Amino acid sequence: MSTKRLEQAAQATKTAFVFPGQGSQKVGMLAELAEQFSVVQETFAEASDALGFDLWHIAQSGEGLDQTENTQPVLLTASIALWRVWLELGGITPKYLAGHSLGEYSALVAAEAMTLADAVKLVHLRGKLMQSAVPQGEGAMAAILGLVDDKVVELCQQASATGQGSVEAANYNAQGQVVIAGSAALVQQVMAEAKEQSGKAIALPVSVPSHCSLMKPAAEKFAEALEQTAIELPRLPVIQNVNAEIATDVAQLRQALTAQLYESVQWTKTMQHLQEQGIQYVVECGPGTVLSNLAKRLPNIEKAFAIDSKARMEDALNAVLVAEGKIA
């Protein structure tokens, strides 16, 4: 689809696409769709050529998939492969795009702000820099459930005030669901405090404390790579993680991508923004169902879909076309 048609087709819809971040990967992802749609293998080949190693092998075998520097380009490529299958099958062009953390890069590629080749190089570097920013075992992340956002922030501030490191709210995923990140000991402290406040706390199996101030050294190095990467304003509106707003110039977009490494992911505000813009249908374009399940809980979202299998893709295609009034 041409850029002009892409923009025109998006204007009349009530559909948004959301792209998942790290944690949605699974061994064997997209294998079924790859058998039917050549564009899946072609997309992985394009990304693999850019990096010089086989991303499809990593995705299917699981070898090295848990290493951040590999996880990020594999997930990005899988999301773009699904996006291309969707368009190939005549799927509706969404009015808005948004991506959770790493998923913001998938959204930018889908919106033609950067090429897939450039994007996989960026996120491969991003993963390396994030991994090297904090020594193994010194950082941690945890999900805090059942407490209001302000209480979680207060617990983080109290723990950080001890002077033994820092812990911060990293992802505002939904009302009553905040992920914290920072120094491992302080994350444990906040988890214990949250449980005392009748909340729940779940340690996340990650090796990197993302979206907190511990990532600032990585962000400084990453900014240099961003400056050397060709980026244009997206052809479809992409809601940014750090402020739940749409960039109005490329400099602002680069700045937001840099800040994304050490600032909180504002997913609750992002989904609120989509609802305020009249979005009623959400399609999760990537492996898994994390974001579509979150969307189903929202008052103004009528339907949310995942498209990471043949059956799910077909269901979403038909349901969205019917909901948008494109077919009876």
Q: Please, how many helices?
A: 14
Q: Could you give the distance between the termini?
A: 24 Å
Mean pLDDT: 94
Q: Order of strands in the sheet with the most strands?
A: 7-2-1-9-10
CATH topology of the largest domain: Malonyl-Coenzyme A Acyl Carrier Protein, domain 2
* CATH homolog superfamily of the largest domain: Malonyl-Coenzyme A Acyl Carrier Protein, domain 2
Whole-number count of domains: 2
CATH class of the largest domain: Alpha Beta
Q: Helix- and strand-based class?
A: alpha/beta
Rg is: 19 Å
Number of strands: 10
Please summarize the sheet with the most strands.
Answer: 5 strands, parallel
CATH architecture of the largest domain: 3-Layer(aba) Sandwich
Fraction of residues in helices?
Answer: 40-55%
Order of H and E elements: HEHHHHEHHEHEEHEHEHEHEHEH
Q: Any low-confidence stretches, pLDDT <50, length ≥5?
A: none
Principal-axes shape call: globular
The percent range for strand residues is 5-15%
Protein name: Malonyl CoA-acyl carrier protein transacylase
Keywords: Acyltransferase, Transferase
GO molecular function: [acyl-carrier-protein] S-malonyltransferase activity
Family: Belongs to the fabD family.
Looking at this protein, list some descriptive labels:
328 residues; alpha/beta; Malonyl-Coenzyme A Acyl Carrier Protein, domain 2; Alpha-Beta Plaits; 2 domains; five-stranded mixed beta sheet; 14 helices; 10 strands; 14% strand; globular; Malonyl CoA-acyl carrier protein transacylase; acyltransferase; Ac_transferase_dom_sf; Acyl_transferase_dom
